[in-house]
Structures are given as C-alpha cells and as structure tokens.
C-alpha cells in the first residue's frame, strides 16, 4: 500500500476512530494519542487486513485494543462514563429514560464498573456511548449481530436487576 493510499484511509477514518476512543475515554488527549497509535499499528498490519469486516470496524477494533492496553499500562481500571453525557447524547432512548426516572446515575455507573464483566461492559458501552448497531458490534467481536443484541440485553437486564436489589 502506498503512503498516498494510507493517507486517504487516515483522512476518511480518523474522525470515526477518534470519536470512538473519545466516547470510551472522555479525554481528548488520550483519544488523540490512542488514535495516533491505532493508525501506526494499522499501517504496520494493513497487509493482514483480510476484508472480512469493514475497514472502519477493523480500525475501531485496533483502537479498542490500544485503549485497553493504555488502561492496563496506566492502571486506570475505572474508565467509568458520566451517565449525564449518555442521556444528553441519547435522550430519546427508552433505557436512558428509565435511568432518568430512577435518578440513580451513580448506582448505575458503579454497577457497570463493578459487576459487568467483558464482553458485557464493552458491548453495553459501544451500544449506548457510541451508538453502534448490533451488526457493527458483532463485527468488532467477530460474532453475529444476534450475539451482540443478546449480550447488550443481558447487560441491561443485569444493571436493572442490581438496581432493583438495591432498592
């Protein structure tokens, strides 16, 4: 692949990768660093890209792995999301309305951080924070859209059950 071809890929997908990482990290500096690392890794591994998934999905998978590496290196295990931001972004979603009605933002955040294991936490965040479709989420994990849908709803159900248990 020529540098011009990769530059074109960079220009097309930079914002997608950057905003994806920004939605996970909530920090523009971290998002910038990880986006740069993502494209460095991608240029080195572009020959391994088989085309099984869309290029955007492949890049976001690299970005997700880079972000998790960053968290491990910096021992930032608490990568919690501010649920107020989620509600502002996705105000019309039924699940967020349930959260608003219950006024339990902190509890939900604690549940997500302490009780949701992978892949439930990541699938939940990809769906709620990033607004990815179940098909896109399934592609990121190398699974079906049905798997992503079931995983999301199990995560949601677990959060709601723990909220009920604490009431």
Descriptive overview:
- The protein is mostly helical and 167 residues long.
- The protein has two domains: 3-73, RNA polymerase sigma factor, region 2, helix turn helix motif (Rna Polymerase Sigma Factor, Chain: A, Orthogonal Bundle); 83-166, Arc Repressor Mutant, subunit A (Orthogonal Bundle).
- 75% of the residues lie in helices and 0% in strands.
- It contains nine helices and no strands.
- The protein has helices spanning 3-25, 28-45, 55-73, 83-89, 94-102, 105-115, 120-128, 134-141, 145-166.
- The longest helix has 23 residues, at 3-25.
- It is globular and about 60 Å long.
Keywords:
Arc Repressor Mutant, subunit A, mainly alpha, 167 residues, globular
């Amino acid at each position: 692949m020529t540098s011009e071809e990769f530059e074109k890929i960079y220009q097309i997908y930079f914002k997608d990768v950057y905003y994806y990482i920004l939605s996970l990290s909530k920090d523009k500096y971290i998002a910038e660093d990880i986006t740069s690392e993502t494209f460095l890794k991608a240029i080195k591994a572009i020959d391994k890209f088989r085309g099984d998934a869309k290029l955007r999905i492949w890049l976001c998978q690299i970005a997700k792995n880079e972000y998790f590496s960053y968290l491990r290196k910096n021992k930032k295990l608490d990568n919690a999301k501010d649920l107020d931001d989620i509600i502002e972004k996705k105000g019309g979603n039924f699940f967020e309305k349930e959260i608003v009605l219950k006024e339990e933002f902190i509890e939900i955040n604690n549940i997500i951080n302490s009780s949701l294991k992978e892949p439930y936490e990541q699938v939940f965040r990809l769906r709620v924070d990033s607004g990815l479709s179940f098909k896109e989420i399934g592609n990121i994990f190398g699974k079906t859209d049905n798997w992503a849908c079931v995983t999301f709803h199990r995560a949601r159900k677990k959060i709601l059950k723990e909220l009920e248990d604490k009431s």
